[in-house]
Automatic annotation (TrEMBL):
EC class name: lyase
Keyword Lyase: yes
Protein name: Diaminopimelate decarboxylase
Organism, scientific name: Rossellomorea vietnamensis
EC assignment: 4.1.1.20
Annotated keywords: Lyase
């Protein structure tokens, strides 16, 4: 549950701290995470799976947002960790995360990344290509090291979401297709490799999904495929990874299901389809990222220039933009925002929120009702906790913002604000 509120002074608060106090202490742009909400979301996933009676793993999808403190939080909440690069893996290991609970994804893992993961003895590799099947096994054989793998498959299910974030359809850069026979071929190769222990299948149908139908269809396809593999190859697989993609609320238009509803739908489908095939119930893995952290994040900006174009538009510029949140420019993502220093004041002006980058496309929100804005006002943009900082850049040589965690009236920096000196540190 979110702790965003308004105090007696009329200022927006997060985690019991006034946003004005946060800005005064840490500056802007500032990414603020409601730590209690993240922990609450983790508990919702765990409790829902515990009610199902199925064995499970909830792996935080670190690509949504990662830093050492987020890794520590994931460990404290008994989550596993999904990484997709050597950098994410390194961060997890540096923070002391148990390697046995790390799953390594990615469609083009390098030899160096695979070696790093092997040396760390991570829990599982999600194999995504025929090249990786051979390369990973060659490396494992050289080390005489058995590795556990999942085979990533595309079930041919097209989720109802933006075309840039669908991943389960037939035409995808991820995984092996079930329908054209590549998935069965990959499994046939994997079971003949002595240093592989085949755990099961991985599937991910997309992101920002608001209904159960896509997951149900995918589980039906996967269950039937696992049954076919049992018959054809005499192979039983004990794990089914459904991926993530659970929707969150960015604006009032978004109507996501509660976390327990997503989990119950998945576990009910698993029980139904696997019982129908008389297949032992698998351990179910999921990988929530956005649904764990998105709504827990709020970005605070200071209002700068204001440009009124009569009968056209009013632009209100802030001191950040596409360098800390590229999602609106990348796939037309929508957000809601308020003036944090005057959240209860009547909204009488229709404005568009512009970033400071030298790009016409650097627009965070196109149409937003706000009170009349003044230079120095604080704008709070909600639900920025996922794919904001993790996709941030130094375009226009703009330093990345600071990130703070807040909880019960306390705040702490988890990522320091970059400086101009940081920008030139690697220059030669």
């Amino acid at each position: 549950m979110s702790t965003v509120d308004v105090n007696v002074q009329g200022d927006l608060t997060i985690g019991g701290i006034g946003t004005g106090d946060l800005v005064e202490r840490y500056g802007t742009p500032l990414m603020v995470y409601d730590e209690g909400m993240i922990r609450g979301n983790a508990k919702l996933f765990r409790d829902a799976f515990n009610e199902s009676g199925l064995k499970y793993q909830v792996a935080y999808a670190s690509k949504a947002f990662l830093c050492k403190e987020m890794v520590r939080l994931a460990e404290q909440e008994n989550l596993s960790l999904d990484v997709v690069s050597g950098g994410e893996l390194y961060t997890a290991l540096e923070a002391g995360f148990p390697a046995a609970r790390i799953h390594f994804h990615g469609n083009n893992k390098s030899e160096d990344e695979l070696l790093m993961a092997l040396e760390a003895e991570i829990g599982c590799f999600v194999v995504d290509s025929f090249l990786e099947l051979e390369l990973l096994h060659d490396l494992a054989k050289e080390r005489e090291q058995e590795v556990q793998i999942l085979i990533r498959v595309t079930p041919g299910v097209e989720a109802h979401t933006h075309e840039y974030i669908t991943t389960g359809q037939e035409d995808s850069k991820f995984g092996f297709s079930i329908s054209n026979g590549q998935a069965a071929t990959a499994i046939g190769l994997a079971i003949r490799k002595p240093y592989f222990s085949l755990l099961g299948l991985h599937s991910h149908i997309g992101s920002q999904i608001f209904e159960q139908e896509g997951f149900d269809q995918a589980i039906r396809v996967l269950s039937d495929f696992m049954q076919r593999i049992r018959i054809d190859l005499d192979v039983m697989m004990p794990v089914l990874n459904i991926g993530g993609g659970f929707g969150v609320r960015y604006t009032e238009e978004d109507q996501p299901l509660p976390i327990p509803t997503y989990v119950k739908g998945i576990t009910d489908s698993v029980k139904t389809y696997f019982a129908k095939n008389e297949y032992p119930l698998p351990e179910v893995w999921v990988e929530p990222g956005r649904s764990m952290v998105a709504e827990a994040g709020t970005t605070l900006y200071k209002v700068g220039s204001k440009k009124i174009i009569p009968d056209v538009r009013t632009y209100v510029a802030i001191d950040g933009g596409m360098t800390d949140n590229i999602r609106p420019a990348l796939y037309q993502a929508k957000y809601h925002a308020v003036l944090a220093n005057r959240p209860n004041e009547e909204c009488t002006e229709l404005v568009s929120i512009a970033g400071k980058c030298c790009e016409s496309g650097d627009m965070l929100i196109w149409d937003l009702m706000l009170p009349p804005t003044n230079y120095g006002d604080i704008l709070a943009v909600f639900s920025t906790g996922a794919y904001g900082y993790s996709m941030a850049s130094n375009y226009n040589r703009i330093p990345r913002p600071a990130v703070v965690f807040v909880d019960n009236g306390e705040s702490r920096v988890v990522i320091e604000r970059e400086t101009y000196e940081d920008l030139v540190r690697k220059d030669r």
